[in-house]
Design goal:
Elements (H helix, E strand, L loop, with lengths): L17 H11 L3 E5 L5 H12 L1 H6 L4 E5 L17 E5 L25 H18 L1
Parallel strand pairs: 1-2
Antiparallel strand pairs: 1-3
C-alpha cells in the first residue's frame, strides 16, 4: 500500500500532512477531503471498512486530494463543531471548509456512520459539482 492510506484505500494517493494537502489542493484545483479518525476507535474502523469496500467511493476519491489524520490539528477550521471521530470535512481550493457539506447528525455535522456511506458518496459528488459551478 501507498504510505498513509492506513486502510482507507490502498490504491489511492494520500498526502502526508495537512500543509501538503492544502498546497496540493490549491495548485491542482481539486477539493480536499480530510478524514479524522483514530486507530482504536470502533466507529472509525467500521467507517474505514465501509469506505474501503465501496467501489464507487474509491473511484470518486481519485478526483480529490486526500488526507487522513489520526491526530488533531491545531487548525480550528478543522473542528468547526468539536473534535470527534470519525469526521470528514471537504475543503475547496480556495481553502474554505465547506460547511454546506455535512452528514445527517445535527450534533456532529461531519460525522458519518457506516450506514451513511451512500450519503458520503453523494456528498463527494456534491463537493466536485460545487467546484465546477463556482470556479
Amino acid at each position: 500500500p501507498l504510505p498513509s492510506s492506513t486502510g482507507w484505500g490502498d490504491q489511492l494517493i494520500w498526502t502526508q500532512t495537512y500543509e501538503e494537502a492544502l498546497f496540493r489542493s490549491k495548485h491542482s484545483n481539486k477539493p480536499l477531503m480530510i478524514i479524522h479518525h483514530l486507530e482504536d476507535c470502533p466507529h472509525s474502523q467500521a467507517l474505514k471498512k465501509a469506505f474501503a469496500e465501496h467501489k464507487d467511493i474509491q473511484k470518486l476519491a481519485e478526483k480529490f486530494i486526500l488526507l487522513n489524520l489520526v491526530y488533531e490539528t491545531t487548525d480550528k477550521n478543522l473542528s468547526p463543531d468539536g473534535q470527534y471521530v470519525p469526521r470528514i470535512l471537504f475543503i475547496d481550493p480556495s481553502l474554505t471548509v465547506r460547511a454546506d457539506i455535512t452528514g445527517r447528525y445535527s450534533n456532529r455535522l461531519y460525522a458519518y456512520e457506516p450506514s451513511d456511506i451512500s450519503l458520503l458518496y453523494s456528498n463527494m459528488q456534491k463537493a466536485l459539482k460545487l467546484l465546477k459551478t463556482e470556479l
